[in-house]
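Much of the work behind modern protein science is quiet bookkeeping, done one molecule at a time. Below is the pair of lines this work produces for a single protein:

***
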Amino acid sequence: EEEYDLTSKESQEAVPSAAGKQVEDSGTKVDEYGAKDYRNQMPLKADHSSRPLWVAPDGHVFLEAFSPVYKYAQDFLVAIAEPVCRPTHVHEYKLTAYSLYAAVSVGLQTSDITEYLQKLSKTGVPDGIIQFIKLCTVSYGKVKLVLKHNR
């Protein structure tokens, strides 16, 4: 029976450090019901009523299912985030390192992801989310396979 040393330097280098990252959310107030209050951190844009997304500082994205651009926004979110909960009116997704890596692996660029989030969001996309997206997508395509002796 073989045993693998998961603490070796070689195995640590094989997995990108971004793979284990989560969005950091500090300083958010929680009300008496356990709900997070983002009102002070997320001011609405002037044309917020025509936009379907809320992008929270903790990486959760909320989609209004009754929006005229719902289908477009849903297709985009399915490509970049993992679904958490999808009741009738508001769907919840979560940005993760793996979902973002999957997004760039199917051809989305980092700039496309951040640009579309900005266009669809009712509020400005938090800087921490932009940094997280860049961190998780920057390493895609950096591995090269080299054959020796046609093997």
